[in-house]
Amino acid sequence: PNKDFLFPQISDLPYFRGLLRAVEARFYQENDLPAPVLDVGCGDGHFAWRAFEQPIDVGIDPWRMPIREAAQRHIYRLTVQADAGQMPFPAASFASAMSNSVLEHIPYVEMVLAEVGRVLKPGAPFVFCVPNHQFLSTLSVGRTFDRIGLRPVGNAYRSFFNRISRHCHCNDPKTWEARLAKAGFRLERWWHYFPTKAQHVLEWGHYVGLPALITKKLLGRWILSPTRWNLAVKECITRPIYEADPICDDGVYSFYIARRMESAS
Q1: Nearest 5 degrees, angle CA 163-CA 167-CA 168?
Q2: Closest by CA position to 140, among listed 18, 17, 252
Q3: Is 190 helix (H, G, I), strand (E, B) or coil?
Q4: I need a surface site. Which of 16, 127, 156, 215 has the fewest CB within 10 A?
Q5: What is the DSSP string of 119-171?
Q6: Which residues contact 126 (CB under 8 A, 6 or more apart)?
Q7: How remote is the C-alpha of 237 from its chain's centroid?
Q8: Which residues contact 49 (CB under 8 A, 6 or more apart)?
């Protein structure tokens, strides 16, 4: 319960992304994921590598380079390169599933949810997190344009930021509950997290962190010197947010706990 997820994240990732992932990692410590576990959209495996002490049974992702990197981290017993909309697993193969900040990027998300329902055993939990309906309206630059009477410019900025974030879905809990029910799930619990102040750190981090993108492209790593002294300012910015209660009504992300219904086909 006292494990620090923040510094390991910001020592590997741009600080704004590391902050978000550190907050999310804490939520998984409070949820039981019985084996075998499926990680839907595991990417390069970095999140699971930092968030879990024990290996996850299977990680699936459609992209070749990230799934190779995930295999090299040895946090998954098996990595599979495949589309989550057509998973190569028999029905009822897994006792639980997770998907961390992935479903918002998938245009055909209903198909993916149906596949997750197919490969889960009846009664199995499915936990995931996504940006919600408050994400775009609270962006600081968009709000500034709104306040000075330039709402169309603010809307254009929100559209731009959503595009660079590669979001296909920023929906409210009712929308996700309907999607889950159609796929054979019962939504048991959800909460909003990452308040507006934290979102502004994430928003501006996209621009301040551009040098890290160059470093990643040229040298294959986001952070050249992952030391306390080099990351002191970034830790000072992110630490108060990380240590505050992350669950809040104005949170721009939502965490969901669903369960495959016993009668799902």
Answers
A1: 110
A2: 252
A3: strand
A4: 156
A5: HBPTT-EEEEEEE-TTTTTT-HHHHHHHHTT-HHHHHHHHHHHHHHTT-S---
A6: 96, 97, 98, 99, 116, 120, 185, 257, 258, 259, 260
A7: 21
A8: 73, 75
What is the spatial distance between Cα 208 and Cα 212, in angstroms, rounded to a whole number? 9
Mean pLDDT of successive 10-residue segments in the chain (265 residues)? 89 94 94 96 97 96 96 97 97 98 97 98 98 97 97 97 95 98 98 95 89 79 86 94 93 98 69
Note whether 58 and 94 are within 8 A (CB): yes
Kind plus residue range of the DSSP H or E element containing 40:
strand 37-40
Whole-number Cα distances in Å, 225 to 8, 76, 212, 213? 13, 27, 11, 15
